[in-house]
Every structure is written in structure tokens, then in C-alpha cells.
């Protein structure tokens, strides 16, 4: 595998590290099976790409994309909390709606950003190649997001959100407004996914309506891989683990698709994804059996 493929895998893995953090909030903290991610990820890309193509600066466009993702997540939470629609069904309804909304925002199936300014080429210093600078910038962004999340979930509001996911009945008995916590958590989760989508569109040179297909699977795979290789109850370690899981996932995909002896091609990406997710799901069981064999 070439050095360009390695840096490219690192770049995409870091972007999907934001998705993994968003999925961690919805699936692990709130215990909310949220499929809105498959719609909020391209929503972020569509919003940012549309605004940039209209002449808005990429930083403001990215922030607006985050706000759009947060609003989409809040609507999913509202359908569940206020209208009493089952959580999984509420997220499916929002995901379906976002497909049409994204088409409406872009005015078509895709928007190119080949000659437009992005957060990457605006901040890129002279003398540094783009395929090296982009991962470095994403590392800085991920560290900031991770530290902010670590701080937030150590506050009273963050602990209330964690209690809502762990035991909502007990949380309500302690005076926690669980419905509000769900709305905030879903907004935060999908804001991170929309941010990832906005950065992905700017990194890849455009937004496409199909860019969100399978995003939730990738996010879940990153969370499962991270939890398998770095099991911990400390939130600081958990957030670090899911980011590492996202990067490792992309490296595995790049290695599989670039290994000539395997004979895989770009159209085999979904097959590779399914195999990696299956392996990640089975990994804890394999470790448990190995530990049981050693004890025996």
C-alpha cells in the first residue's frame, strides 16, 4: 500500500472519528438506536457544499452544517419524546425525510467543490503538502472535540444524560428531565456527524446524495472495535478508544482494498465493511472464550 493510501486512510479515519463519537453518544450513552446518522452525515456535506458554492466562507458554512445536523437530531428526539414514536422508528422516519431534504438543499444529486475554498486549503501553510496537512488539522480538531466531550460528560448536565441512558426511571426519580436530556444528546450526536459530513465533502471535493450510505455501520464498527481493543469504564479512555477504532477501521479497509493478493476492488467495499463489522462483533466473544480456556 502506497504512502498516499496510508495518509488518505488516516484522513478518512479521523473524519469518521467524529461520527464514532456521535454514535457513542446515541447508542452507548443514551441507548438510542439512531439511524438518523445516515441522513445527518450527508446533510452536513450538502449544507456546507451548498453554502460554500454560494460564496459563504467555509468556516461559517461548516458551523451552519453542524447546526443543521443538531436540528435533525433534535427532531428525531422530539418524535420519540413528545410524540411517543418508538426510537428506532423515529430515526428511520427522519433518515428517510433527510434524503429528500438533502436533494432539495443541493438542488441535485451532487455539488462539486473542486475550485472552491475549504477549511483545509484556507488554513494550509505554504510548503506543506495537502495530504499531510489535512490529517494533522483533523487530529487537532479531534483532540479539541474529545476534550470538550470529556469535560461535558463530567459536568452535572453530562452526568444527568448518562444517567438517562443507564436508568431513565431512576434518573426521573432524582429530578432529571430525561426528555430534555434525550433531545440535547441527540442534537449533540448528529451535530458531530454533520460536522464529519461537512469536512468529508470539503476533503473529497464535493457532496453527493449517496455519501451517507452505511455511515451508521461504520460508526458502530468504530465503537465496537475501540471498545474491544481498549475496554474501560473511564469516559476519557472510551472516547479515545472509539477514535482509534475509526482510524483502525479505515486502515483495515484500505489494506484489504489495496492488497493485490486478495483481489478485492472498490466495488467490494460493502463486503469488506460487513466482514469487518462481523469480526468486531464476534471479537468480544472470542476473547471471552480464550479467557475461559486459560482459566480452565
Task: Characterise this structure.
Helices cover 76% and strands 2% of the residues. The chain is mainly α and 296 residues long. The chain has one domain (3-295): ABC transporter involved in vitamin B12 uptake, BtuC (Orthogonal Bundle). A two-stranded antiparallel sheet has the order 1-2. Helix 10 packs across helix 11 and helix 10 (215-229) packs parallel to helix 12. The longest helix is centred in the first third of the chain and has 27 residues, at 3-29. It is globular, with a radius of gyration of 19 Å. The relative contact order is 0.19.
Task: Using brief descriptors, characterize the structure shown.
296 residues, mainly alpha, ABC transporter involved in vitamin B12 uptake, BtuC, two-stranded antiparallel sheet, 2 strands, 76% helix, globular
CATH class: Mainly Alpha
End-to-end separation in angstroms reads 42 Å
CATH topology: ABC transporter involved in vitamin B12 uptake, BtuC
The main sheet comes to: 2 strands, antiparallel
Question: What radius of gyration results from the CA coordinates?
Answer: 19 Å
- Quaternary structure classification: single chain
Short description:
By secondary structure, the protein is mostly helical. 76% of the residues lie in helices and 2% in strands.
